[in-house]
Design a protein that fits this description.
This protein has 338 residues and is of the alpha+beta class. Helix content is 32%, strand content 31%. The chain has nine helices and 17 strands. The active site is at 233, 278.
């Protein structure tokens, strides 16, 4: 009888545990991800080989259940975020993932541009409009445009670059109304938005962050297979790997080099999230050097947080601050071959 009671209690407890694991809290949990070599991911046609490796670093992010939440509370290098800090208001999980994959796509393009420009190789552009990355709260675009919208006409006009788009908008007056022709989920629509002066810049606009929607053609051809990795934070490391395959000189010098940071088409390196967790991931993967965004020497920069984490986990990995692609290349060119 006791044996049956014990078995029944065990089964009930197991069912409760299983069901409760599917109950999600209004939080996300992030934890150290992986550090992955880029040479198998990036292939430049007839590219040069390297003795060491460049590695991208990732953070694992997922919705929190009661168990992952509890574990994160007790773990030093896991973080808990409320949903609104990760996903935009009314943004579904699917829409969030789509936005992250789109950010990855644009970061790959910027990485290709940066690397090929540095190597002195011409790039051909096919401009299709702009993508909306962010819509700022309490700005005219708030509630009318969404992240992921593609704007390909303004007042019926098409443009050949985002610079032309910005110049056109900036040339108007506060209170003027413009008509955006957008594509959202394969549906074309027109949206009227009044212009205002953006407090941070003093320029006329609608309150969006944008990125070019363009296709680029390069020779030699380059392919980047990122599968389901999302977000823009690997852009800088992509650019290093692409450039290293384009030039004869092996900039790895035989070292295992990890890092993180966004990249724009001008080679500027930007701040990312989860730098502490990426340091942990890179250390576990055996990285010897880690590039961290310096943010022009800000006290709360990614670099400062990376140094603190490196000291905390007692790694021998060297943390290197960078603001631009050129700075990283100069550092690598001065490295002694391992």
């Amino acid at each position: 009888m006791k044996k049956k009671y014990f078995l029944r209690s065990f089964v009930i407890a197991a069912i409760i545990l299983m069901l409760s694991s599917f109950y999600y809290l209004p939080y996300y949990v992030s934890k150290p991800g992986m550090a992955k070599e880029l040479e198998p991911i990036i292939q430049v046609e007839n590219g040069h080989e390297e003795e060491g490796s460049f590695m991208l670093t990732t953070v694992r992010m997922g919705k929190a259940n009661i168990y992952s939440y509890a574990i994160a509370k007790l773990s030093k290098y896991q973080e808990i975020f409320p949903i609104e800090a990760i996903r935009r208001e009314e943004e579904t999980e699917e829409e969030y993932n789509v936005r992250q994959l789109h950010l990855m796509a644009t970061s790959k393009q910027a990485a290709i541009e940066t690397a090929y420009k540095k190597a002195g190789i011409p790039i051909k552009y096919d401009y299709n409009g702009i993508f909306v990355l962010n819509v700022f709260p309490n700005m005219p675009a708030d509630g009318k445009l969404k992240a992921g919208d593609r704007i390909f006409k303004v007042d019926g006009k098409e443009f050949e670059s985002s610079e032309q788009f910005i110049t056109y908008i900036s040339g108007k007056n506060e209170g003027d109304e413009v008509v955006f022709t957008i594509e959202r989920l394969k549906e074309i629509k027109e949206v009227k938005i009044s212009l205002t002066k953006i407090p941070e810049t003093g320029k006329i606009g609608v309150g969006i962050a944008l990125v070019d929607d363009k296709e680029i053609e390069v020779t030699p051809n380059v392919t980047i297979n990122t599968e389901e990795i999302g977000g823009p934070s690997a852009g800088f490391m992509f650019s290093l790997e692409i450039y290293n395959q384009l030039v004869k000189e092996d900039l790895t010098r035989g070292y295992q080099i990890a890092g993180t940071g966004t990249i724009d088409s001008n080679g500027n390196i930007g701040k990312i999230g989860g730098i502490e967790q990426k340091i942990v991931a890179a250390d576990k993967a055996g990285a010897e050097i880690f590039f961290a965004p310096n943010e022009n020497g800000a006290n709360d920069s990614n670099y400062q947080a990376a140094v603190k984490t490196a000291e905390d986990i007692k790694t021998n990995m060297k943390i290197v601050p960078v603001d631009t692609f050129d700075e990283a290349i100069e550092y690598l060119q001065e490295l002694k071959t391992k």
